[in-house]
Write a structure and sequence with these properties.
alpha+beta, Translation Initiation Factor IF3, 3 strands, elongated
């Protein structure tokens, strides 16, 4: 699948995602299966040099923080697209994993269980 961009994610709202195993106000009626989003990212030479300079002053290394945030968001959004394609309404039990594939190249995986839900009756 091609890279997913955030503007493509409109069908499963973030409020219908959780690291828990239920969605308050809804009951799970079907388990659609595990869905995932994978992003493999490398650091640019310029970003690495800039981050290296930031380490001299200590504190937050904002260049790496921004890269990590963008990568995790893309993996999350890709997972949501896969959940939508599986006709899910929500994703529960969301987790992240990251592995260094080679020096400077990192894989970020976001995964969860895609489910169909119905609102609880009052």
């Amino acid at each position: 699948m091609n890279s997913i961009i955030a503007s493509q994610v409109v069908d499963i709202p973030y409020s219908m995602t959780t690291t828990g195993f239920d969605i308050p106000g809804f009951r799970i009626v079907a388990n659609v299966g595990v869905v995932r989003g994978v992003v493999v990212r490398s650091r640019s030479v310029f970003g690495t040099l800039g981050a290296g300079l930031q380490t001299l002053f200590g504190g937050n290394i904002s260049l790496f923080t921004e890269l990590a945030e963008r990568t995790r968001r893309q993996a999350f959004d890709t997972m949501l697209v896969h959940a939508h394609m599986a006709e899910a309404d929500a994703v529960i039990g969301i987790r992240y994993d990251a592995n260094e594939l080679m020096q400077g190249v990192t894989e970020v995986l976001c995964y969860g269980t895609a489910v169909q839900v119905q609102p609880l009756e009052a």
